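hiii, so i know i said id send this last week but things got crazy w the move. better late than never?? heres the sequnce for the chain we talked about at the cafe, plus the structure i predicted for it. fair warning i was half asleep when i ran it
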Amino acid sequence: MAIRFPLCWPGAGMTVSRAKLRDLEPVADLPPPEALKTITPLRLDERSAELANQVVVDAELVDTIETIFAGSGFVKDRDKVRMLVNVRAEINSKWKDTRDAYLAIGRSLLALDTKFSREESEMLRANMDQVFPFSDSVGSQLRACARAVDSGRLPFESCPSSYATAYQIAMLSDAQLEIAKQKGLIRINVTRSEIVSFRKELKSGSAPVNEGETKAKRALLLRKQKRLEFNLKQVLDEIARLDAE
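okay and structure toks below
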């Protein structure tokens, strides 16, 4: 349940105990809990009357702050607490913007694939980093992420902010994805190491081979081969031109 976390401590040098925080009455006009997962970012130089007295946080954040700074005088300093909460909100907002950005890039690349012929797509991928600020390998991962989200295999609200993590999820088979959901691994704050460890556990337990991943790796190697062949042809053509002069 969301509560209002007073930033004007009751008395100099006094801390607000967890019990007192829990005893605070819920505020009836607060938005639903899902709307409080990310606090609206506020500029640190803004000092409205309401912000000067309180900010909206959830109980989990209260516990986190208490745990991290246990034994220190941090929670006594309302300005530091307010700054931490505001910076957290701003970073959360920017971090989610990152997810929107890489999904948009992935969708744009998929759109190119539908417009270009297969040969044209292969030629572009062979020279991806000459056109875009990332390699073909990264482009393939971005496509896979966008495809997984748009197909519904990876719910948008659970899609991690890191494309590398989202890609690890996208490469799971349907059966493996279901197991991951049961284990609570399909969530926005899951880490890449958690998914990698999960995939290793599946392999050690003789889990079904992810044919999609195998095909993706093979396709990537073939594209690398074509890129090398393309570059070699350019070198040979240049040598032939020089010899003809």
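btw The first strand starts at residue 2 and ends at 6. thought thatd interest u
miss u guys!!
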